[in-house]
């Protein structure tokens, strides 16, 4: 299973205006309380307050749109987006979306560990929580160990992008 985040959308979720190279884009992952699914919105910074979220924000990060010929940095940008998203899950914890948030933390920690961004500390846990060290910042965090069911995977598959290849 290969995990990836899709690149920034080409246009704003709110206004449908195209993003241009150099534009900042705020990426939001949220739980849609009505549909019971996760949603993603890519917005201009001045649109964030205008965007009506149908639920609580689970994660938020900011990216800059690159020139089309800068595609070689896509892998680095993807990893940076995953890293930013991972940290935002700890900053924007929502009790009512705990199941999805815990699953995202768990999945992202495994991906970031594989890419050597995070390192598991102590013995490998199979239940409860695993302590991870963010290699660059030396920050430690407790990541819940979650049984990743097919139902949960289907909930997030379309939202975060082309995660499973």
Folded structure, characterized:
The chain has 165 residues and is of the alpha+beta class. It has one domain. The protein is 28% helix and 24% strand. It has three helices and six strands; from the N terminus they run βββααβββα. It has a three-stranded antiparallel sheet with strand order 2-1-3. A hairpin with a 5-residue loop joins β5 and β6. α1 runs antiparallel to α2. The longest helix has 18 residues. The radius of gyration is 16 Å and the shape is globular. The termini are close together. The N terminus is likely disordered. This is CarD-like/TRCF RNAP-interacting domain-containing protein.
Brief summary:
By secondary structure, the chain is an alpha+beta fold. Helix content is 28%, strand content 24%.
SSE diagram, text form:
Elements: E1 24-32, E2 37-43, E3 57-64, H1 74-91, H2 98-114, E4 118-121, E5 129-134, E6 140-144, H3 150-160
Protein name: CarD-like/TRCF RNAP-interacting domain-containing protein
């Amino acid at each position: 299973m290969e995990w990836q985040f899709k690149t920034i959308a080409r246009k704003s979720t709110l206004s449908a205006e195209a993003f241009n190279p150099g534009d900042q884009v705020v990426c939001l992952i949220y739980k849609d309380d009505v549909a019971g699914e996760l949603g993603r919105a890519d917005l201009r910074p001045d649109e964030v307050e205008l965007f009506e979220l149908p639920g609580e924000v689970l994660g938020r990060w900011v990216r800059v749109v690159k020139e089309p010929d800068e595609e070689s940095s896509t892998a680095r940008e993807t990893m940076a987006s995953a890293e930013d998203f991972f940290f935002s899950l700890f900053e924007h914890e929502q009790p009512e979306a705990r199941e999805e948030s815990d699953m995202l933390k768990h999945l992202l920690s495994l991906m970031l560990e594989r890419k050597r961004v995070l390192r598991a500390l102590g013995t490998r846990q199979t239940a409860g929580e695993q302590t991870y060290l963010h290699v660059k910042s030396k920050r430690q965090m407790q990541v819940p160990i979650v049984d990743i069911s097919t139902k949960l995977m289907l909930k997030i598959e379309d939202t975060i992008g082309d995660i499973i290849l």
